[in-house]
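Reopening this one. Same input as before:
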Amino acid sequence: MDDKELMRINKYLAAAGICSRREADVIVGGGGVTINGETAVSGSKVAKGDTVICDGEEILLSDERTVVAFYKPAGVTCTAKDEHADLIIDDVFKYPKKLTYAGRLDKDSEGLLIMTDDGDLIDGMMRAKNHHEKEYIVTVKQEVTADFLKKMSAGVFIPELGVKTRRCKVRLIGGKKFGIILTQGLNRQIRRMCATLGYDVEKIFRVRVMNITVDGLKPGEYREIGEQEKQELYRGVFEEDGR
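Same output, byte for byte:
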């Protein structure tokens, strides 16, 4: 941020990697942010040199951006705060600086989360219009049939959401296990798709987000994304977003 630039508070918090802009609006609306000692409101702006406090912690912008691949274990809720959750991300992901997730996994699912302090990257990856690929291996309780695979790949109308999912790539792995590549992220999408077709999910394991994979990681482990991988990720996010 240069000396004359003003930045909206939600963008500032996102750029600092605290959360997405949408989540920042919620935090600000709850009175959890101050700028130079004054409680911020929606639309408040930050100038260079201002002191921003979020939930008691001073928030600083950095030009360096960190991107980490983290294997989220099953049973961990993707949230920064939830008094009703048994385990949240901060309980199992320990890193020297504050990072947040770019796209959630539901509590019962496991696998790859992209963790970063780049709010623009988070927002870009969460834009459904960009059709970013996310790949999963799914285990169900019933034998996977050719008819099931055909219906999943064609898109499934989910009554409770009132929408039909996008066409996707689905492959049989064997028996009660299949692979699926989605380009959208509806709430509990795979579980809802399977349930609509009469299938019960036992396990969902996310193995890839765009060009980043969970290969080599065990539950609770992370690795920093290499420079070449990071450049490819950023190209995929921002070139497709037209930026």
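So the earlier flakiness isn't reproducible anymore. For the record, The chain has a mean pLDDT of 90.
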